[in-house]
Backbone:
């Protein structure tokens, strides 16, 4: 009954869902029961029983997420040092495909080949035209609710560091200040020999002028500052290991946790939570696991924490 009532409002307000979850008899307090009944009557003629079952399942899932979000809020509040580890899944809601899910870039073998050291070294014409174009599709996107919430959590001192595998720069753009981009970025390029940095646009400019591969003043080849398979990890990866060791809480958002050595970082944290659409190899080690969209879950978390702030009710 409580489940059905919650649906009548179709509220995405996490505080409201949380309150109805806590209430032992929410139906008494529900002032929308008429809408609720009419919704049920409307659905029944089409599929007797089935519509009701779907509704209940939907709300059971929603309530389960809400209670996990409450746990997440409490864990964030009590943790002394929180690290968030993000992957491509945090940016799919900004329109950038991930690698491994059903619509991911990895399903396209051309992408795998294009974004490789072999192509960069042995087929520079292919890399600097098609590969660069593919990287270019990840640029110019806008941060989504997940990035923005993580930036807000940092401002609220509930998150200390974001470690990201993403190269799209959307954490920085959304206002996160402490971000370790362990697979590089699409803002800069650098010379393979002298390491001199130039803006990423230098590469496209050089290609337009027919200079492939683009060269530095020293004669060295200039390449994107992105870590491809076979590349060494950048110095900020050591920092990522240190903060992961220091963290008493790590929240993983939108990563399949299958790319080494990043995939080992969750094992360093003392407590783990995971928000990912699909199961990951670390699910059994996490105290909180939410298989849902990052934007949806983090928005609920933000609204829940704001609701606690506004009502003055303690988070735990
Ligand atoms: P991955 O593709 O291996 O895994 C992404 C995971 O995110 C999947 O398990 C998927 O189920 C989940 N996911 C997709 N959309 C989601 C959403 N809206 N909410 C929650 N989860 C969602 O990505 P990975 O683990 O980051 O590793 C792949 C490598 O791909 C990284 O090295 C990264 O550099 C690179 N990459 C980066 C970008 C980017 O910068 N945006 C895009 C593609 C790939
Ligand atoms: Zn150089």
Residues:
């Amino acid at each position: 009954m409580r489940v059905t009532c919650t649906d009548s409002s179709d509220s995405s307000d996490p505080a409201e869902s949380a309150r109805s979850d806590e209430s032992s008899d929410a139906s008494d307090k529900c002032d929308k029961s008429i809408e609720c009944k009419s919704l049920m009557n409307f659905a029944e003629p089409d599929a007797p029983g089935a519509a009701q079952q779907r509704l209940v399942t939907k709300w059971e899932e929603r309530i389960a997420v809400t209670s996990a979000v409450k746990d997440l809020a409490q864990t964030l509040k009590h943790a002394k040092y929180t690290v968030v580890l993000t992957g491509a899944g945090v940016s799919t809601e900004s329109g950038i495909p991930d690698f491994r899910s059903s619509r991911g870039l990895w399903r396209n073998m051309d992408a795998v080949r294009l974004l490789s050291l072999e192509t960069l070294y042995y087929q520079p014409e292919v890399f600097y035209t098609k590969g660069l174009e593919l990287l270019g599709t990840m640029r110019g996107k806008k941060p989504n609710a997940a990035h923005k919430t993580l930036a807000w959590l940092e401002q609220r001192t509930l998150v200390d560091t974001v470690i990201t595998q993403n190269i799209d720069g959307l954490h920085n753009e959304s206002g996160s200040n402490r971000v370790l981009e362990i697979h590089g970025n699409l803002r800069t390029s650098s010379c393979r020999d002298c390491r001199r940095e130039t803006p990423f646009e230098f590469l496209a400019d050089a290609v337009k002028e027919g200079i492939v591969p683009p060269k530095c003043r020293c004669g060295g080849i200039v390449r994107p500052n992105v870590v491809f398979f076979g590349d060494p990890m950048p110095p900020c990866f050591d920092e990522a290991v240190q903060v992961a060791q220091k963290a008493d809480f790590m929240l993983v958002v939108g990563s399949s946790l299958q790319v080494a050595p990043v995939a080992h970082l969750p094992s360093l944290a003392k407590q783990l939570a995971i928000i990912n659409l699909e199961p990951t190899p670390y699910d059994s080690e996490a105290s909180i696991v939410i298989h849902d969209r990052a934007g949806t879950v983090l928005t609920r978390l933000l609204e829940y924490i704001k609701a606690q702030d506004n009502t003055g009710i303690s988070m735990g």
In short: The domain at 80-96+142-183+233-316 is CATH 3.40.50.1220 (Rossmann fold). The beta strands are 82-86, 161-164, 179-181, 184-191, 197-199, 222-226, 249-253, 272-275, 288-290. The chain has three domains: 2-75, 80-96+142-183+233-316, 103-137+190-226. The longest strand covers residues 184-191.
